[in-house]
Amino acid sequence: MAHFDENAKPFSQKWLDERLAVSTLKRVLSTEYWIPKNINFLWAMGMVLAATFGLLLVSGIMLLMYYKPDVNLAFDSVNYTIMSEVGYGWLWRHIHGVGASVVFLIIYIHMFVGIYYGSYKRGRELIWLSGMLLFVTFSAEAFSGYMLPWGQMSYWAGMVITNLFSGGSLEAYGLVEWIRGDYVPGDAFLTRFFMLHVLLLPLVIIGLIVLHFGTLRIPHVNNQDGEEFDFEEAAELYKAGKVKESKVIPFNPVFLSKDVFVMGIYFIFFFYLVFYHFEFAMDPVNFDPADGLKTPPHIYPEWYFLWSYEILRPFSKDLGLIAFAIAQVIFFMLPFLDKSPNVAPASRRGLFKYWFWIMLVDMIILTFMGKLPPQGIWNTIGLVAALLFFALWIALPIITKLEKKL
Amino acid sequence: MKELKIFGIVAAFTLLLYWGVEPFAHSKMHKHVEGHDFVYNGTADIEEAEAKGKQEVAEAKKKFWADVEKISKLKGDVAAGEAAFATCLGCHTGQPINMGGVIPPKLDHAGALYDKKYLIALIKDPAMASNVDHKYKDTSTHPMGSIKMMMGGDQQIADVVAYIKAKKAAEVTPKEAYEEACGRCHAMRYMKWTQLGETPKFKYEKDALAYKIKVLDEQDAVKKYMGKLPPDLSIIIRARSEHFLETFVENPQSQLPGTSMPRVGLTKEGYEKVKAYLEESGDPSKPKREALGPWVLLFFFIFTILAYLWKKSVWKGHH
């Protein structure tokens, strides 16, 4: 037992310090959590993501109270009960729907910022890996949530995606049926995806967010120049009052004030979408109730899965599945495939500069092709873009090996 | 300044992405259908037949719509029209009684809802007017088919239409517009609307069940007549684009070739009323969104300005 002051008033600073170490916690987590001064607004995307996740969590809890995970009731509980009968149900739903889409936009920006500035390299590999795990879990979370309104696209996307587990021409349908709990998506499918969406996956996400933050604490956040410096030395300088000379700033309140400003701008954009353009996030096809006897003319996933869907599509059944599987995990390999010794923005590196922009544009092209009907010229462009995607990954270790140390 | 440049790049790629997966992809996924501004003169029908290479049908349609044009030039006599209109009331009673597959529509606001030329065409040949003649080609006849025997020639048609346009054109509510134009085939469960009309409240469950059986019987009749049960329209406003709905109502064949959905013949104003009701059902939060939206955005504008001032004061002396 530690020593406790008999005279400390309950819940006073001292009383709390003795029991919870609140002062130490505050110091370690905020006022003496050192952030490089030289970072731009793109480093605020982490906080923007955390805030969006918070919005998704709160709005999700509101929706959960009125949603009915039953194939006969799901559609109307979302589109009628929540939209018309629950006070502000429409607002919660639109926040949830817009949030689910926008969160991926920010995740992609966050990812490509990491790639551009080399923030996955030397010492920061675990930040990258935990972030990629978060991305994959978010994808599963988004997919399971997309099933819940039980509209036409929910049903058919569920059919197509679970079919991926049939193992190509092995036709191992046992696995698909096990996942669905039925021969086609039905009540068992809906209820288990409901559980995944509202319980298991959010728990995993919260755990991974903690891990992701934890991986950041020792190697510290990267900066705009990829510059390596002694954080403790810089911190001493800052604490000595030489804030101008020091290369670091405390997270709270200095960087936080920038985070909050960026979040303000982001929320204007976010709520503009919620109130005036919510339909961009909601596929009209999903406002037709699920009909297992009528296939929609075009089946496509939400926009954030289109690029990997397009990697699946232009190939034959088995090759497509393998390509798709590789595309899902290849980003995990990034810190190990990039052989360059430099931690620097892409613009200051060798051929990697071109690699970055070609990869970005290629993924945008894949995204476009993933939504277009698979016919004629679109097929060819899709195939070329998919091949280029793999060519880029094969080229990565070679071109980075050639890079000279800066 | 550098941050603004970076923001510009991020925003440009985001917009490019949006353009590709929304407007561009949708323009490639859905064929473009020309709207006709709610003018009913058969142009689309004739083109349609010609595109399919059915020269005979195209000729028949040309002749039919030329006749309609001719009748529309005749001066209708409202008083004479009223007498002839009495024959219509034999079927168009406003009662939910199925006749030959569907319940004939109430005509209380027909003058306000439907286009003049369309009404002329409908009385002359209902199947041709509603562009579902393909359905009645061989064996069956349109439920309104015998009207040809009842109407005594072009002048009488002009009279009846003049009467409808003059006396059945009272201001119509969105609900009435929906009821008369769509409500006999399409249910709208979010508005408690069935093919038999608005579901009454019942004191005893027995009565509610008996009514439900009546609705099921009516649905069976409609299903038999239409080939399938027409879809529930509760949230059709969200499931279809504005352009789709408008061109579909104008000419169902344009979006769903071969469909047994008849052309309704709404005027632009009539369509606006129907649309208002569809919106009330499928997008009831619209007025609330528009009322709350500006306040929430204003809050975040002020929030952002204050956050910026805070940032400026905190960062003082850091650079």
From TrEMBL, chain A:
One of the GO BP terms on file: respiratory electron transport chain
Record keyword Flavoprotein present: no
UniProt-annotated location(s): Membrane
Membrane-spanning parts: 41-67, 98-119, 126-148, 193-214, 260-278, 319-338, 350-370, 376-399
Keywords: Electron transport, Heme, Iron, Membrane, Metal-binding, Respiratory chain, Transmembrane, Transmembrane helix, Transport
GO function terms (MF aspect): electron transfer activity; metal ion binding; oxidoreductase activity
Entry-linked PROSITE patterns: CYTB_CTER, CYTB_NTER
Chief location category: membrane
Domain Cytochrome b/b6 N-terminal region profile, residue spans: 12-225
CC per GO annotation: membrane
Domain of life of the organism encoding this protein: Bacteria
Domain Cytochrome b/b6 C-terminal region profile: 241-406
Mode of membrane association: Multi-pass membrane protein
Record protein name field: Cytochrome bc complex cytochrome b subunit
Lineage, highest ranks first: Bacteria, Pseudomonadati, Campylobacterota, Epsilonproteobacteria, Campylobacterales
From TrEMBL, chain B:
Molecular-function annotations in GO: electron transfer activity; heme binding; metal ion binding
Transmembrane segments: 292-310
Keywords, ordered alphabetically: Heme, Iron, Membrane, Metal-binding, Transmembrane, Transmembrane helix
Designated name of the protein: Cytochrome c1
Highest taxon of source: Bacteria
Keyword Iron: yes
Limits of the Cytochrome c domain: 76-168
PROSITE patterns attached to this UniProt entry: CYTC
Coiled coil stretches, renumbered: none
Organism, scientific name: Sulfurovum indicum
Pfam families per record: Cytochrom_C (PF00034)
